[in-house]
């Protein structure tokens, strides 16, 4: 068993039990409760926001030059790396994910803090061309207090992706993890607290506020001290937040859902494409915003490719995240497993052929866990609900296409525009399709590879704004223009 953090939220620099309702967090591999975590109350959200505003304005932080701020990020990166085993085991227990994956996510969280520290130290401001007797400067300043709201699927990586640039930008942060998976964010909060303490920085720079989104998350978004919200989660929640942000005319960034097309052209390297398609949808048990959940195969290759794919999917090893041989781990929660199962029932009603999977695995090893078999469906039009709605589980729907125009029309016939994969040896075709498809990220002959140096975000209903990259910090700052008069004479009009 991993070390379980105490039932304490971090409120304006103080660790204490939240005054709100308790909620159990469950290991989805066993169904056992691993911890009970109290939510914070609405008064405590307000207290955390006030504390964050004070911390952001504290001269120890406000006046710290960027290269000194970077020291905090470097120290957090070190502490994360030193705690890799604990953090990975904790996230596996809380989310069900395979240990190999959670270890990689911890590594990526540490790398995010390091990269952001380097970007911070090398970020430049501009002297813009002068058009008069003045010098013009364009500079960046902190927003103040940032609300960061995350889903349950990859907590440590999503937390790092928001915390590192928000702190780098000179802000204080109110972090709200998902109610189903608060543990790793609480553990990360302890590491940040330690780093702040070691460097003599205000403790209120980070609050970790546990509890339900409709209460605690909503209170963060509406709090008058909060000047920006960065959200990752479902599209309908994102839309709700956008309405609340509009009331305050507050900037927000949204990383939302997807129904990403993976495309196999007739000339693809079939071995690579098979491995890539399976990894794209079934790794993380399909609980990934960028999961390649709609498979488009050239009609002449369709029967052969999908037939071989199904043979291989049947052999994927389903098991607990703690087993190093596991490829498909349990889903995050039994309630989520039921929602995935309901989608496959809907697919059957819509007339789908279930080529493999389509149910829970049988046997005592699976009895108590939130398992679902990797599933391949076909026989549905792209307009069906199964092809249009995000299932967020190990469910792939396959469709044939006739030519490039037909493919692009079907791929873009979706409210989402998050990602796309293209498998082909024809680099010209890859280029044409990549440029025509509505997707924030396109992978060509690879899938689900991520670099913190490369901006990420969605088009259409998959999101607003971009995270990562050197400019990622700018999303957490306000731009200001300065005009510095250098004339000897007074301004002519007033004279
Ligand atoms: P969700 O239901 O939208 O929840 C996300 C977070 O928002 C949770 O912390 C949730 O709290 C909170 N929340 C819910 N209602 C809220 C409200 N009215 N005000 C403020 N906060 C609120 O999403 P999910 O089911 O956890 O996560 C799955 C979704 O995330 C999928 O659609 C997936 O595609 C998307 N996702 C996108 C990306 C990306 O980068 N584009 C990455 C990962 C996941 P509670 O759940 O604790 O109540």
TrEMBL record:
The active site is at residue 255. The keyword Oxidoreductase applies. InterPro entries: Ald_DH/histidinol_DH, Ald_DH_C, Ald_DH_CS_CYS, Ald_DH_CS_GLU, Ald_DH_N, Aldehyde_DH_dom. Keywords: Oxidoreductase. The keyword Ribonucleoprotein does not apply. Pfam families: Aldedh. Residues 15-481 form the Aldehyde dehydrogenase domain. Belongs to the aldehyde dehydrogenase family. This is Aldehyde dehydrogenase. It comes from Streptomyces durmitorensis.
